[in-house]
Each structure stands twice: as structure tokens, then as C-alpha cells.
């Protein structure tokens, strides 16, 4: 056989474009930590200098550290090979031997590995660099001395591995805060079977650029999308109260290709309609619990788990718009021919034999789900207008990014000075409520929209050093009295207006920081006058349009 030349850089480009997003790429790397028997896995995101956690394109570098078995030189070089010739253990999360390279190069142009096996020193730094590969036209690794920060992250472990991604590509277009929230949520579902016992800890941390300080951290909580342990044992139409999901299927079925082999497990639950989260006859705690179920089209359908790891989230197959039905399929390596899993571990193709079985087994649960929704429809009345103002906007937009103007010619030092000016100005805008909605809980969200009763302006712009911009809307202003107070908290109309005020506040903050033609203090004063003038004009509009709502007071 004649060997053919390959373009090494184009191969790297191709495998980096197989459908990863930042969170799925990071989880493909995390798979290796689980397979190395790690008990602690930490994803570390490093901010670009001068960025907040909510700035888009704010991530400078990503490091993943675990305390697993570690690798020696042979193990590291094998991990760096394309299509690594590794014999995987039965029911491993790995499959093709491409994950580190394909996921890694989807994140950045440089991949670094440092590892440590028990009773051995920390290894040197092995790296793959797209720029070097392109220049040399050879797919290969090189070795450098290990960075001090990498040593610090590994030295407290008896064994373990550190993988670093820099010169970021795709990930550089999302904010650190959004990636933390998305990754922690998806990882909680993906690795539910691994994390539910509490024996393994998976954390995400955001660091300052130099790694000297942790700005935010989050521990991934296991999340069962079927809420199996909370669900009623069965669905009884006559007595169902629309408060919890119901178990409607729990069985196994044969492998069509090998009936004597290991069976495939199937479970299903049906959920109350999402509108029940505002049902006036439920307690606030019951409404909150229904909201946690996140009943939606996106979260309905089939959840396929291979060897305990989620492959496909909410696959619809033939279910169409059955919002309240979730089905979990659990299979192992033996069943791979029935479920064709792609390299990115995000998609699969279900064989016709399996789909035929699923249609039969899920037929009754589909009908039960429709009956359950009918019960909820009959119960729903006018929603009670409860909850904190702005809370729905803040929770819904917990990962909203601040698009930053990249064209400014202002120096980093001047930009920082102006940011300090904004923060100092914001110290006078303290409201009594906490900084976060649901503070201390898993769905904690920065309060971008806040309401207060001070001053004469309709809104004030504020800046938090870590989280970024926020807006304070004045409840004593006539516009609030005429318009906002007549809109349900959390309604589409209320959130749309809140989005306008929030965007105005962010725009003011960024203009103060970036406008190069005059001093930051002058720009800040201009916007203060602008807010006063705009607020006064809206006051005049209210006085001339008070009868728009039919309000006689």
C-alpha cells in the first residue's frame, strides 16, 4: 500500500468543526477525567484583562484539572495522537480516540498537557500548537518547562492531569458567566449518574487574568431531568393535582441484534403544564417547584444515556410537540450498533428496530401526557401577580452577555480609570435587596434590573466590578405608576420595557468607558443630564396621557 500525504493543519481544522459548542467541548475533555477515576474535577476560566464576567469574548484561557490516575510520558503522547491506539475499558465514555484533539482545537489553537502519576514528579508540559503544525506541515507535539501556575494547580494532588486551552477561537465569543451557567447546567444533566452519590465533585471557577484570585465559582449539582425521585408513582387521572410529574414507564427491552445480551432500560415521566407555575391556588413553594421542572418543547422527548453519560438531550424522533413527556433510554457499549453516536457525543442515529420498540412502549405515556395537560388547562385561572419586580427578567437573562465595543482607541489604563469612576458613582445607588436573585441557590442570577424609590430620574445606570452593568428603575416616577405598575410582573410587555432600560444603562456605561473624544467624568455628567431630561420628558408624556389605561385616580 502506498502512503498518502496529508495536510496536517487542514485535518486539525476539520476535526475542530464537527459540531462542538464550548460547553460540549469541555465536557468531552471532562469525560477523560471521569475515566481516570478522578474524585475532583475543576474547570478554570481565566478572564481577559479589564473584562467583567458578563462581557462577551471575555475568556482568555481554559484549564481543566483533575486528581485522577494521571499519565506518564507514554500515556501523554498516546493521548495526543489522532485516533489514539488505546484499548478502552468496557463501558468507557471514550469511543474514537479523537476527543482531546477535536474538542481541544474547537476551543483554541493550543492544547497543553501536564500530568502526574503517584509517587512521581509533575511532568513537563506537552503541547499541540496549530500555528506550529501549520508552519511545519507536521502533526506533532513539543515539550516545554511546566508553568509555575500549572505546578501550583497539580502539586496538591497525589496524581492527576491538567489540560490547558489557549489562543481561544469559538469560546472567545461567549462570556465567562454564560459559559459557567451553561456548562454547570448541562454537566449536571450529562453526568447525573456519576455525580448523584456525591463521591465526585465537579466545579467551575472564574479567575483573574494572572490566576491570583477566584472571582466566581460554582459546584455542578446533579440534575435528573425526569425528576424520578420526586415523581408520583403513577398517573391517576381522577386525583391528579398538577403539582408533580408522574412515573408512567419503567422497564427494559431486548437488544434486537442479541436478545440474550444485556437489556436496554427505558423510563418515562409526564409533567404538569408550565403555566401551573403561576396558578393562584398553589403556594409560592409549589409554584417555584413547577418552575424548576422547566417544562418546554426543548426539554421534552428522549434522553439517550450511553454508559451513564448523556449523548442526546430531548431527541424528538416522532413525538413532535408532546411538551410534558420525557423518556430516558440507558444503553451500554454492547448496544453501540443500535445507537450510532457521533464523534462530538452530542448526536446519535437510532436504528429502525429500536425506534419500532420505542413507538410501542411510549404510546400510552403519550396519551397520559395529553390527559394530564387537559387537567392542568381546566385548573388554570388568571395568574396571580406575585413575586419580586424584575426577578423574572433577571432569572430568564442570567447568562445575557454585554456586547462590548471593540473599536475604541482608548488606552487600557484610561478605560480602567473610567470603570473605577463608574463604580464609585454606583456606590451611591445602593438598594436594599440582595445582589442576586435566589442568592445561594443553584439558579442564582445577577440582578440586572432592580427597582427602587429614590431620586427623580426614571432610571439610573450602575456598574458592578465583577458582574457588569445593571439598571435601577424608579417606582416613584409617574411612568412607573401609569405604565409599569399596570403590567404583570414577569409579563412579556414588562420584560420588554425592562430590556430597554437595561440596554440604556449598559450603553451609558460602555460609552463612559470607551468614548475617546473627551474625559470620562464629562461623559458621565452628560449622561446624568440626559437621564434627567429623558425622565422629565416621560413625566410630561404621562401627564398628557393619563387616561390611556382608563385610570381615574
Q: What are its keywords?
A:
alpha+beta, Heat Shock Protein 90, five-stranded mixed sheet, 553 residues, Ribosomal Protein S5, domain 2, eight-stranded mixed sheet, 3 domains
Overall domain count: 3
The CATH class of the largest domain turns out to be Alpha Beta
Helical fraction: 25-40%
Helix-strand category: alpha+beta
Rg calculated over all Cα atoms: 27 Å
Taking the alpha carbons of the first and last residues, their distance comes to: 91 Å
Characterise the protein shown here.
This protein has 553 residues and is α+β, with helices and mostly antiparallel strands. The chain folds into three domains: 8-219, Heat Shock Protein 90 (2-Layer Sandwich); 246-379, Ribosomal Protein S5, domain 2; 397-549, no CATH class. 33% of the residues lie in helices and 21% in strands. The chain has 15 helices and 20 strands. An eight-stranded mixed sheet has the order 5-4-3-6-2-1-7-8, with helices on both faces. A five-stranded mixed sheet has the order 9-10-13-11-12. A hairpin with a 7-residue loop joins β16 and β17 (445-446). α14 runs antiparallel to α15. The longest helix is centred in the middle third of the chain and has 28 residues, at 352-379. The chain is flat and about 85 Å long. The mean pLDDT is 87.
Amino acid at each position: 500500500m502506498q502512503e498518502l500525504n496529508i495536510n496536517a493543519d487542514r485535518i486539525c481544522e476539520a476535526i475542530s468543526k464537527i459540531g462542538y459548542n464550548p460547553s460540549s467541548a469541555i465536557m468531552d475533555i471532562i469525560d477523560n477525567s471521569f475515566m481516570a477515576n478522578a474524585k475532583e474535577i475543576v474547570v478554570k476560566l481565566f478572564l481577559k484583562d479589564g473584562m467583567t464576567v458578563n462581557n462577551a469574548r471575555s475568556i482568555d484561557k481554559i484549564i481543566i484539572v483533575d486528581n485522577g490516575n494521571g499519565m506518564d510520558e507514554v500515556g501523554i503522547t498516546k493521548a495526543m495522537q489522532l485516533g489514539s491506539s488505546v484499548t478502552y475499558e468496557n463501558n468507557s465514555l471514550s469511543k474514537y480516540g479523537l476527543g482531546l484533539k477535536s474538542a481541544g482545537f474547537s476551543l483554541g489553537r493550543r492544547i497543553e498537557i501536564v500530568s502526574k502519576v503517584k509517587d512521581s514528579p509533575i511532568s513537563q508540559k506537552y503541547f499541540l500548537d496549530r500555528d506550529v503544525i501549520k508552519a511545519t506541515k507536521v502533526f506533532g507535539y513539543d515539550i516545554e518547562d511546566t508553568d509555575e501556575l500549572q505546578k501550583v494547580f497539580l502539586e496538591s494532588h497525589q496524581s492527576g492531569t491538567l489540560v490547558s486551552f489557549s489562543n481561544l477561537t469559538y469560546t472567545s465569543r461567549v462570556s465567562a458567566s454564560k459559559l459557567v451557567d451553561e456548562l454547570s447546567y448541562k454537566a449536571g444533566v450529562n453526568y447525573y449518574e456519576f455525580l448523584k452519590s456525591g463521591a465526585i465533585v465537579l466545579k467551575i471557577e472564574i479567575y483573574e487574568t494572572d490566576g491570583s484570585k477566584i472571582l466566581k465559582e460554582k459546584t455542578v449539582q446533579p440534575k435528573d431531568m425526569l425528576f424520578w425521585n420526586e415523581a408520583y408513582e403513577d398517573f391517576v387521572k381522577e386525583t391528579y393535582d398538577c403539582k408533580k410529574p408522574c412515573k408512567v414507564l419503567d422497564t427494559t427491552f431486548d437488544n434486537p441484534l442479541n436478545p440474550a445480551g444485556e437489556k436496554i432500560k427505558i423510563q418515562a415521566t409526564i409533567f404538569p403544564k408550565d403555566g401551573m407555575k403561576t396558578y393562584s391556588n398553589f403556594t409560592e413553594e409549589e409554584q417555584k417547584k413547577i418552575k424548576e421542572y422547566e417544562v418546554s418543547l426543548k426539554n421534552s422527548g428522549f434522553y439517550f444515556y450511553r454508559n451513564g453519560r448523556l449523548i442526546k438531550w430531548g431527541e424528538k424522533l416522532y413525538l413532535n410537540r408532546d411538551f410534558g413527556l420525557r423518556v430516558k433510554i440507558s444503553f451500554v457499549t454492547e448496544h453501540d450498533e443500535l445507537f450510532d453516536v457521533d464523534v462530538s457525543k452530542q448526536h446519535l442515529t437510532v436504528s429502525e428496530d429500536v425506534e419500532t420498540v420505542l413507538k410501542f412502549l411510549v404510546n400510552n405515556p403519550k396519551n397520559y401526557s395529553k390527559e394530564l395537560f387537559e387537567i392542568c388547562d381546566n385548573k388554570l385561572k388568571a395568574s396571580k401577580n406575585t413575586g419580586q419586580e424584575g426577578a423574572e427578567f433577571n432569572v430568564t437573562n442570567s447568562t445575557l452577555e454585554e456586547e462590548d465595543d471593540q473599536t475604541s482607541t482608548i488606552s487600557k489604563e484610561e478605560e480602567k480609570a473610567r470603570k473605577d469612576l463608574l463604580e464609585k458613582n454606583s456606590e451611591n445607588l445602593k438598594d436594599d435587596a440582595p445582589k442576586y436573585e435566589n442568592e445561594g441557590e443553584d439558579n442564582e442570577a445577577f440582578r440586572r434590573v432592580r427597582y427602587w424609590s429614590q431620586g427623580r430620574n426614571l432610571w439610573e445606570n450602575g456598574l458592578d466590578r465583577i458582574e457588569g452593568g445593571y439598571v435601577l428603575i424608579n417606582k416613584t416616577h409617574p411612568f412607573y405608576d401609569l405604565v409599569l405598575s399596570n403590567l404583570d410582573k414577569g409579563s412579556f410587555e414588562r420584560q420588554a420595557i425592562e430590556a430597554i432600560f437595561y440596554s440604556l444603562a449598559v450603553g451609558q456605561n460602555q460609552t463612559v468607558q470607551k468614548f475617546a473624544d473627551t474625559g470620562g467624568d464629562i461623559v458621565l455628567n452628560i449622561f446624568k443630564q440626559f437621564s434627567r431630561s429623558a425622565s422629565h420628558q416621560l413625566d410630561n408624556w404621562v401627564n398628557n396621557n393619563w387616561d390611556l389605561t382608563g385610570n381615574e385616580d
